[in-house]
């Protein structure tokens, strides 16, 4: 099933102050092709509610455009209690009939001072010209000891496809002021029967930058611009003469922490 995956939460689990996916970025941040990056940051307080509103110019996941035209709006609500996060996300295309729901749970693993990890599950339901559903198991791990560089890896297993997708990322977060942060990143994706069955291996390379501005202690505005480069898995799927398979897209997020 080709669409959103793991780090939605891990993305939803991180706060845009740490990029797209927040502790995912904050400590492991990860922009990757997930639409919600940096939404939730694991907080030491007993509980934390988060609302995130977003728009992406294209719906890109696994290096592919999931919509025939236009972009997509996203709305996410999440509730975090200690190391457990529950979330619900709905996406609606702005130019065609497409609605996607993601319901999930993520557990932050206690791995010490140098690593951040998580395990989770999410249910995906898609409505539109074609309807489909999937159950996914995901995990992520990031190394946070180097202040200016955060390597991370994210794994997603699809029960519908009986395959998995892996994304290895590097993020470099730079605070230009107490409110303004810029984070360039690079992500390499690998497909193993997650999107295609006939070919396994390198899927796409994604480059981008995220900019985050802290409007208030509870309110954060962020934007990103990203570019994907198609690799063997995508080219094998659609054929070598299918035109430009690379994508450039951008997005905006407004994140409110209660």
Automatic annotation (TrEMBL):
Keyword field: Signal
Signal peptide range: 1-22
- Protein name in UniProt: Copper resistance protein B
What organism does the UniProt record list as the source?
Answer: Shewanella algidipiscicola
